[in-house]
Amino acid sequence: MTVFPVFVLVIAALIIFFLATLAGYYLRKLAVAQKKQAEQLAELEQAAQEQRQRVNDSIQIIARSLLDDGVGLTEASIRIRVLLDSLQVEDSVREEFVAFYTIAEKTSHIPILKGWKALPRKEQFQFELEMAKVEVDYKDFAMDAAKRILGRSF
To answer: Are 138 and 68 in contact (CB under 8 A)?
Structure first.
Protein backbone atom coordinates (compact mmCIF):
# COMPACT_ATOMS: atom_id res chain seq x y z
CA MET A 1 0.00 0.00 0.00
CA THR A 2 2.88 2.39 0.40
CA VAL A 3 3.84 2.10 -3.25
CA PHE A 4 0.43 3.26 -4.50
CA PRO A 5 0.32 6.60 -2.57
CA VAL A 6 3.96 7.31 -3.52
CA PHE A 7 3.18 6.48 -7.16
CA VAL A 8 0.13 8.78 -7.09
CA LEU A 9 2.20 11.54 -5.50
CA VAL A 10 4.92 11.18 -8.15
CA ILE A 11 2.34 11.25 -10.95
CA ALA A 12 0.64 14.28 -9.35
CA ALA A 13 4.01 16.03 -8.99
CA LEU A 14 4.83 15.30 -12.64
CA ILE A 15 1.45 16.64 -13.75
CA ILE A 16 1.93 19.79 -11.65
CA PHE A 17 5.46 20.21 -13.02
CA PHE A 18 4.21 19.78 -16.60
CA LEU A 19 1.37 22.27 -16.07
CA ALA A 20 3.68 24.80 -14.40
CA THR A 21 6.17 24.49 -17.27
CA LEU A 22 3.37 24.90 -19.79
CA ALA A 23 2.04 27.95 -17.94
CA GLY A 24 5.56 29.45 -17.84
CA TYR A 25 5.95 28.84 -21.58
CA TYR A 26 2.68 30.62 -22.38
CA LEU A 27 3.46 33.47 -19.97
CA ARG A 28 6.79 34.00 -21.72
CA LYS A 29 5.10 33.85 -25.12
CA LEU A 30 2.54 36.40 -23.91
CA ALA A 31 5.26 38.73 -22.62
CA VAL A 32 7.09 38.56 -25.96
CA ALA A 33 3.84 39.25 -27.85
CA GLN A 34 3.04 42.21 -25.58
CA LYS A 35 6.53 43.63 -26.07
CA LYS A 36 6.22 43.27 -29.86
CA GLN A 37 2.78 44.90 -29.78
CA ALA A 38 4.13 47.82 -27.71
CA GLU A 39 6.97 48.29 -30.23
CA GLN A 40 4.52 48.23 -33.14
CA LEU A 41 2.28 50.75 -31.38
CA ALA A 42 5.26 53.04 -30.79
CA GLU A 43 6.20 52.77 -34.48
CA LEU A 44 2.62 53.57 -35.53
CA GLU A 45 2.50 56.56 -33.19
CA GLN A 46 5.81 57.81 -34.60
CA ALA A 47 4.56 57.37 -38.17
CA ALA A 48 1.33 59.20 -37.30
CA GLN A 49 3.31 62.05 -35.75
CA GLU A 50 5.52 62.28 -38.83
CA GLN A 51 2.45 62.28 -41.11
CA ARG A 52 0.85 65.00 -38.99
CA GLN A 53 4.04 67.06 -39.30
CA ARG A 54 4.05 66.62 -43.10
CA VAL A 55 0.44 67.81 -43.27
CA ASN A 56 1.27 70.78 -41.03
CA ASP A 57 4.22 71.62 -43.26
CA SER A 58 1.96 71.46 -46.32
CA ILE A 59 -0.52 73.84 -44.69
CA GLN A 60 2.31 76.27 -43.98
CA ILE A 61 3.61 76.06 -47.55
CA ILE A 62 0.16 76.67 -49.05
CA ALA A 63 -0.54 79.61 -46.71
CA ARG A 64 2.85 81.15 -47.53
CA SER A 65 2.26 80.57 -51.24
CA LEU A 66 -1.17 82.21 -50.99
CA LEU A 67 0.33 85.27 -49.32
CA ASP A 68 3.04 85.43 -52.00
CA ASP A 69 0.46 85.09 -54.83
CA GLY A 70 1.92 81.74 -55.82
CA VAL A 71 -1.41 79.96 -55.70
CA GLY A 72 -5.00 81.03 -56.26
CA LEU A 73 -7.29 81.72 -53.36
CA THR A 74 -9.82 79.06 -54.35
CA GLU A 75 -7.20 76.35 -54.78
CA ALA A 76 -5.45 77.29 -51.54
CA SER A 77 -8.75 77.29 -49.64
CA ILE A 78 -9.72 73.86 -50.92
CA ARG A 79 -6.31 72.41 -50.12
CA ILE A 80 -6.09 73.95 -46.66
CA ARG A 81 -9.61 72.82 -45.80
CA VAL A 82 -8.84 69.25 -46.87
CA LEU A 83 -5.58 69.22 -44.91
CA LEU A 84 -7.17 70.65 -41.76
CA ASP A 85 -9.96 68.10 -42.02
CA SER A 86 -7.42 65.30 -42.45
CA LEU A 87 -5.91 66.38 -39.12
CA GLN A 88 -9.38 66.24 -37.57
CA VAL A 89 -8.98 69.68 -36.04
CA GLU A 90 -11.40 70.90 -33.42
CA ASP A 91 -14.43 73.00 -34.28
CA SER A 92 -12.74 76.08 -32.83
CA VAL A 93 -9.99 75.77 -35.47
CA ARG A 94 -12.59 75.35 -38.22
CA GLU A 95 -14.32 78.47 -36.95
CA GLU A 96 -11.05 80.40 -36.78
CA PHE A 97 -10.27 79.56 -40.41
CA VAL A 98 -13.85 79.68 -41.65
CA ALA A 99 -12.77 81.77 -44.66
CA PHE A 100 -11.07 78.73 -46.20
CA TYR A 101 -14.06 76.51 -45.44
CA THR A 102 -16.49 79.07 -46.88
CA ILE A 103 -14.55 79.59 -50.11
CA ALA A 104 -14.11 75.84 -50.54
CA GLU A 105 -17.82 75.27 -49.95
CA LYS A 106 -18.93 78.01 -52.33
CA THR A 107 -16.74 76.56 -55.10
CA SER A 108 -17.20 72.86 -54.33
CA HIS A 109 -19.52 72.35 -57.31
CA ILE A 110 -16.81 73.45 -59.76
CA PRO A 111 -15.10 70.49 -61.43
CA ILE A 112 -11.38 70.02 -60.89
CA LEU A 113 -8.51 68.26 -62.67
CA LYS A 114 -9.82 66.08 -65.52
CA GLY A 115 -13.36 67.33 -64.98
CA TRP A 116 -12.14 70.90 -65.51
CA LYS A 117 -10.20 69.99 -68.64
CA ALA A 118 -13.25 68.25 -70.08
CA LEU A 119 -15.37 71.40 -69.76
CA PRO A 120 -15.99 73.55 -72.82
CA ARG A 121 -14.08 76.83 -72.69
CA LYS A 122 -17.33 78.78 -72.21
CA GLU A 123 -18.20 76.83 -69.04
CA GLN A 124 -14.65 77.23 -67.74
CA PHE A 125 -14.98 80.97 -68.26
CA GLN A 126 -18.30 81.03 -66.36
CA PHE A 127 -16.74 79.11 -63.47
CA GLU A 128 -13.70 81.42 -63.51
CA LEU A 129 -16.02 84.41 -63.17
CA GLU A 130 -17.81 82.71 -60.30
CA MET A 131 -14.48 81.91 -58.55
CA ALA A 132 -13.30 85.49 -59.09
CA LYS A 133 -16.44 86.85 -57.41
CA VAL A 134 -16.04 84.51 -54.43
CA GLU A 135 -12.35 85.42 -54.18
CA VAL A 136 -13.13 89.16 -54.21
CA ASP A 137 -15.79 88.69 -51.51
CA TYR A 138 -13.54 86.67 -49.18
CA LYS A 139 -10.00 87.71 -50.09
CA ASP A 140 -9.38 89.93 -47.04
CA PHE A 141 -10.71 87.26 -44.65
CA ALA A 142 -8.66 84.52 -46.31
CA MET A 143 -5.45 86.56 -46.37
CA ASP A 144 -5.88 87.36 -42.68
CA ALA A 145 -6.46 83.66 -42.00
CA ALA A 146 -3.35 82.76 -44.03
CA LYS A 147 -1.27 85.17 -41.92
CA ARG A 148 -2.64 83.64 -38.72
CA ILE A 149 -1.97 80.12 -39.94
CA LEU A 150 1.75 80.78 -40.41
CA GLY A 151 3.83 79.22 -37.65
CA ARG A 152 0.88 77.28 -36.23
CA SER A 153 0.87 73.58 -35.69
CA PHE A 154 -2.39 71.67 -35.66
So the answer is: no
Please provide the size of the chain in residues: 154
Query: Is 0.85 topped by the overall pTM?
Result: no
- First-to-last C-alpha distance (Å) of the chain: 80
- How distant is the alpha carbon of residue 133 from its chain centre? 32
Contact residues for 135 (Cβ-Cβ < 8 A; gap 6+): 72, 73, 74, 103, 142
**Structure confidence by residue, pLDDT tens digits, 116-141:** 899 999 999 999 999 999 999 999 99
Query: Three-state SS string across the chain, please?
Result: CCHHHHHHHHHHHHHHHHHHHHHHHHHHHHHHHHHHHHHHHHHHHHHHHHHHHHHHHHHHHHHHHHHCCCCCHHHHHHHHHHHHHHCCCCHHHHHHCHHHHHHHHHCCCCCCCHHHHHCCHHHHHHHHHHHHHHHHHHHHHHHHHHHHHCCCCC
Q: List, for residues 8-49, the tens digit of each pLDDT value.
A: 889 999 999 999 999 999 999 999 999 999 999 999 999 999
Region 94-101 average pLDDT: 95
